[in-house]
Amino acid sequence: MSSQVDLAELYREHQLPMVRLARLLVDDLASAEDVVQDAFLGLHRNAGGLRDPQAALGYLRRSVINNARSALRHRRTVRAHLKVAEPDLGPPADAPVLLAEEHSQVLQAVRALPPRQREVLVLRYWSELTEAQIADALGIRPGTVKSQASRALDALARVLEEQV
Amino acid sequence: MTHEDLEQRLRSAFAAQADEVTPNSLDQRKQRDTLFALQRRPQSGRRRALAAGVAAVAAAGIAGTAVALSGGGPVGNAALGSPSSTAGGGNTPDWASMKVQPSSPSPTTVGKLSVTGPESATGKGPLAKATMTPQFAMTGKQLTVTVTLDDPQGQKVQFVQVMVDPDTSGMMTPNNIQRCMTQSTKQGLKVTLKQPPVTIEDPGTHVLRIVARVCGSEPTPYEVVWNGTVNAR
Fold first, then answer.
1. Regarding the domain delimited by B66-232, which CATH topology (the fold level of the hierarchy) does it fall under?
2. Do B35 and A16 touch (CB under 8 A)?
3. pLDDT per residue over B103-133, tens digit each?
4. Is A102–B9 a contact, with Cβ atoms under 8 angstroms apart?
5. Looking at the domain A96-164, which fold is it?
6. Coil, helix or strand at residue B136
């Protein structure tokens, strides 16, 4: 019988980069950690037929992205309902107050993008994935990756130029 | 601004934000829990169903058992849950550290209290991952409830109301809804809320309902509801 993927080892090795990826997608560290924890536990539940660590990593990345998207959707719903009581929830507790102003501006503009465009940018410019890998991670065609990236960059350029 | 410039700015900004996440900034307890879970053998669907069935039977057993806690003093005290659930923690009130005993005759019958209900309650909708675990103490006719909330998604549950015989005592009043809890302590995602005591005038069995709610979430409240009964002699 071939050996299965050692999930504990996978966790030790990839938890931090996955939390960083999730942090770029959901804006706060606590949610990012939850997203990654759920992804690993999901992998654990379905680990029976998993033999290839690379495949496990791909599965994990897809789970993190999907969970992050769900977390953002959930947060939007909650904030919409709490609008009367808490009109201004403010930035997350670990907002990038220490980041350089130029980074903050860019990140703020990225947060305003549609989730799919934001995901494409993060996977391309932080994870440094190819278009094919991004397409696989997001479950879309490579052509869509290219068009989403192009639209996202155009939108960002407009926003950032307005701020100058 | 060219796309090349923009790409460079994106890489720098993403790297700067990602670098803020360090091994030391991660939740150590969550890491331990996850590692522990990953090192256990995953259960097959059938085994999971069997385990769920066993858990359901066990839960039904717990729910059907009146658990009474008897204090050593002249008054009775009660706590609900397994013995380990009342182990004294950093923010646990003194009375909650007393041991849970089955409803066997207590050293004293004065103020004896029995509580029947689930060990904990889980919310719905936005609070689907939140769990509320109540603990009880009785002094004379005064029933004090302390609620521990494990709220992994941080929905800001601040308000707890304890209702005795809610069908006859009425629904929440606007005044009650305004009274968001302030007597709370927080440890990680766990919040402990101590409710001012409620008076149980008549001995016998009473319906007990505990509602934990996100303040300001009306008219469709985000809440966790615990339903049980209390028997005061």
1. Immunoglobulin-like (2.60.40)
2. no
3. 333 333 334 677 888 888 888 877 888 888 8
4. yes
5. Arc Repressor Mutant, subunit A (1.10.10)
6. strand
